[in-house]
Model the fold of this input.
Amino acid sequence: MNKKSFLIFIIAAVLFSLPAEAQCAMCRAVLESEESGGAAKGINNGILYLMIFPYLLVGGVLYAVYRSRKKAKAQGKL
Done:
């Protein structure tokens, strides 16, 4: 996969993503009893916020590996 098609794939994935509910069954049952739904929305946003960090960590590690392999290849070690 070349860089151009990878970039197009990433842009398409971001543009055509659908919102998802991230609550577990127990959280949903407790929070549905509230009439305004403000707490449920806050809990859902908090869960989504916490889900970002594992992806950032994995992405950072993969980028570091990519950069080190690219540097080694440039120096002729691979």
The mean pLDDT is 83. Helices lie at 3-15, 25-32, 38-74.
